[in-house]
């Protein structure tokens, strides 16, 4: 059977919105899992991830209902919201991919200096102390500090992870921003 008219775009919208629903539930579940197992103690980070998951879930729900019921007003608002999300997501993805090592280092150092709870999590999970240097008179939750009081600084370890994560997030963001683009044309 040939796909034509609203039937094809309805099926595409339903499939993509079901995918967005699964991604949103995955975001919410991973955030809850991270806080439940003590991997993340920063409530700000978890709150933002859960808020993004809920926002994505609601947008997918609006798109799904609009597509199934062929509700023009819901589809119009869905299209406008997706356009705004596309612009933001595309911009953030490009920024993630465009950051060089120096800019990553500056960004990481600002984050390191502004969040004590994340700093403690990083030192404990990556087994390092301090950002570029460590003062032995300060406290550190890493196991290397507890055993020998000589630890490697966290900046090189975080920098390696940050580069990989930024490339991954930028690529995934570009992928999903381009899956949102064709929906706006329907």
Describe the 3D structure.
The chain is mainly alpha-helical and 186 residues long. The two termini are 20 Å apart. It has 7 helices and no strands.
Short synopsis of the structure:
The chain has 186 residues and is mainly alpha-helical. It has helices spanning 6-36, 43-69, 72-98, 101-114, 116-126, 143-147, 155-185.
> Quick one: biggest sheet?
none
Structural Rg: 21 Å
* Percent of residues in β-strands: under 5%
Helix-strand makeup class: mainly alpha
Strand runs, count: 0
Helix-strand sequence: HHHHHHH
Overall morphology: elongated
Poorly predicted parts: none
Assembly level: single chain
Structural descriptors:
mainly alpha, elongated, 7 helices, 186 residues, single chain
Please render the helix and strand layout as text:
Elements (H helix, E strand, L loop, with lengths): L5 H31 L6 H27 L2 H27 L2 H14 L1 H11 L16 H5 L7 H31 L1
């Amino acid at each position: 059977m040939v796909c034509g008219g609203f039937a094809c775009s309805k099926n595409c919208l339903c499939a993509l919105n079901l995918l967005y629903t699964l991604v949103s539930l995955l975001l919410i579940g991973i955030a809850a899992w991270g806080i439940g197992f003590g991997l993340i103690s920063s409530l700000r980070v978890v709150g933002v991830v859960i808020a993004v998951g809920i926002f994505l879930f609601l947008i997918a729900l609006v798109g799904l209902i609009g597509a199934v019921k062929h509700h023009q007003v819901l589809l119009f608002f869905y299209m406008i919201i997706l356009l705004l999300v596309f612009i933001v997501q595309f911009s953030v993805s490009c920024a993630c991919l465009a950051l060089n090592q120096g800019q990553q280092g500056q960004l990481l150092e600002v984050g390191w200096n502004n969040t004590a709870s994340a700093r403690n999590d990083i030192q404990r999970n990556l087994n390092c102390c301090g950002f570029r240097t460590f003062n032995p008179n300060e406290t550190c939750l890493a196991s290397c500090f507890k055993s020998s009081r000589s630890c490697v600084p966290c900046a090189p370890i975080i920098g390696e992870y940050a580069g990989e994560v930024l490339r991954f997030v930028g690529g995934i963001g570009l992928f999903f921003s381009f899956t949102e683009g064709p929906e706006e044309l329907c």
